[in-house]
């Protein structure tokens, strides 16, 4: 009798509402941040650069990831696996496959946007920073292609979608851990790139601390990436995949949207100056194309 009651209680449990709520709210926040970024770049500074367009692409992919995760939720993710029919589970695995690919593409494009943004900020004053960002951009682009290939043939979810692939697909845990580990390493490297150059700038201590703070927002994304890594192993060994996969997917959404918001926050100083502080940005159109540190902190002297 007690076993039957426990079974009924477990069957009634659901993480679906929380999954849908987070999958909608975080992309909405990112969309707002990117919209403010584009407004600032187009209507205040007069020019939209390649890094802005890349963050738009990343936003589209992040929204696509959330849509795929919502589809997973409608097909059983967030409930216990024994309550999900085989047909629903198959459809969920297809949506999971789509979310894995869009998540990783978005993740890499966010990194590429950061690197182009750094080139605009530091390129004219630091040839070293410009070269580092230039070559690392191509490394991330090549890694994105390799990563897409590896993840597309990992056993989860490929073997569940196409059972005959079970003996031909790649072991999921090593592929996912290698992919996530390299993502974390590249995240830390990318977010650390501007810090030495900010340290060498000639400016007031208060301004330097503010610039450091702005560029350090990205490390919050690194923390999310590390937390997400913890859930990777759980998903690859669990017998209740539809229940235990929820946390991993939600941290994935958090990571993407955190990166998009952090990248956009660095561009909003002219908007804040105009509408909150009542100041008029002094950047000309040509100056905005250079995207110097004066867009982050006015009256900055770069040395």
UniProtKB/TrEMBL annotation:
Entry keywords, A to Z: Membrane, Transmembrane, Transmembrane helix
Q: Kindly give the membrane topology term recorded for this protein.
A: Multi-pass membrane protein
Query: Can the keyword Transmembrane be found in this entry's annotation?
Result: yes
Q: Please give the coiled-coil regions recorded for this protein.
A: none
Pfam families reported in the protein's UniProt record? Fung_rhodopsin
Signal sequence interval, chain numbering: none
Q: From which domain of life does this come?
A: Eukaryota
Keyword hit for Transmembrane: yes
- What subcellular compartments does it reside in? Membrane
Q: Where are the transmembrane segments?
A: 20-40, 52-75, 95-114, 135-161, 173-197, 209-231
- Residues covered by the Rhodopsin domain: 36-274
Q: Name one GO cellular component term.
A: membrane
Q: What is this protein called?
A: Rhodopsin domain-containing protein
Q: Which organism is it from?
A: Corynascus novoguineensis
């Amino acid at each position: 009798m007690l076993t039957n009651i426990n079974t009924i209680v477990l069957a009634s449990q659901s993480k679906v509402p929380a999954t849908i709520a987070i999958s909608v709210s975080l992309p909405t926040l990112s969309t707002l941040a990117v919209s403010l970024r584009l407004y600032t770049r187009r209507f205040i500074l007069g020019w939209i650069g390649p890094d802005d367009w890349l963050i738009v692409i990343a936003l589209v992919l992040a929204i696509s990831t959330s849509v795929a995760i919502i589809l997973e939720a409608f097909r059983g993710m967030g409930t216990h696996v024994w309550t999900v029919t085989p047909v629903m589970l198959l459809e969920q695995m297809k949506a999971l496959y789509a979310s894995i690919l869009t998540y990783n593409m978005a993740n890499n494009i966010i990194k590429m946007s950061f690197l182009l943004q750094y080139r605009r900020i530091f390129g004219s004053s630091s040839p070293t920073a410009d070269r580092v960002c230039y070559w690392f951009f191509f490394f991330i682009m090549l890694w994105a292609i390799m990563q897409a290939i590896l993840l597309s043939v990992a056993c989860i979810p490929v073997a569940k979608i196409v059972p005959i692939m079970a003996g031909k697909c790649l072991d999921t845990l090593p592929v996912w851990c290698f992919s996530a580990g390299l993502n974390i390493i590249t995240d830390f490297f990318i977010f650390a790139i501007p810090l030495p150059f900010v340290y060498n700038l000639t400016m007031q201590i208060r301004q330097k601390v503010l610039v450091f703070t702005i560029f350090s927002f990205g490390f919050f994304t690194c923390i999310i990436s590390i937390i997400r890594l913890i859930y990777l192993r759980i998903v690859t060994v669990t017998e209740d995949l539809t229940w235990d996969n929820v946390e991993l997917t939600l941290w994935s959404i958090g990571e993407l949207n955190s990166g998009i918001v952090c990248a956009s926050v660095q561009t909003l100083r002219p908007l804040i100056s105009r509408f909150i502080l009542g100041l008029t940005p002094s950047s000309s159109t040509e100056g905005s194309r250079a995207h110097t540190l004066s867009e982050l902190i006015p009256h900055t002297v770069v040395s």
